[in-house]
Amino acid sequence: ARLVVLVSGAGSNLLALLEACEEPSYGAQVVAVLADRACAGFDHAARAGVPAQVVAPGDFPDRPHWDQALVRAVTAWEPDLVVCAGFMRLLGPGFLERLPGRVVNTHPSLLPDFPGAHAVRDTLAAGADRSGATLFWVDEGVDTGEHIAQVEVEVLPGDTEATLTQRIKAAETPQLVAQVGRLAREMVRGEGLQGAGAGADP
Length: 202
Ligand code: GRF
Description:
By secondary structure, the chain is an alpha/beta fold. The protein is 36% helix and 20% strand. The chain has helices spanning 12-21, 40-47, 63-75, 93-98, 119-125, 161-188, and strands at 2-7, 29-35, 52-54, 81-84, 103-107, 130-137, 147-154. The chain has a seven-stranded mixed β-sheet with strand order 3-2-1-4-5-6-7, with helices on both faces. Helix 1 runs parallel beside helix 6 (161-188). 38% of the residues are buried. GO terms for molecular function: phosphoribosylglycinamide formyltransferase activity.
């Protein structure tokens, strides 16, 4: 299966996917990485010899034009699955219409708790005693799509945003790698995707 990965940041999840894809039995290849800004994730792709491109909102007159450019850049790679791995922008309706049931995102909380860009900070501020990561099918809402998998971690006394982020990522990354591989292999076997939007009404 062909993966396009969208990144905005450190790209540790992307790195793990790139490593997993080196094993043929994993059943997927990262065919391109797209970013909304220059970032470490973009550099990982370039180093791995994977085509990488920045499609920056600031280079377009408005959001719909950026969305269109991103759709064009992504669909040009004919992905089976688009993986948002620390991609810090909302995808517009145009994007999701062109790739129905093919876009997943990983989020550092036990959704529906703590959606949005500051999930870890919000988790700590709320005094929650557990957190985790959720992999879900992207829809037009903010972290509202149907869940694919969830993994839980403890919040420990004295946790900072950095320590909790690290503990979450240690559970999140293996979950992402395992689930993306499963989805990819199901596609290759022609079983179709299990989940929201997959095979959705036209
Ligand atoms: C991950 O924790 C993901 O849940 C969140 O952003 C982080 C990305 O990390 N959306 P990285 O860029 O893969 O290191």
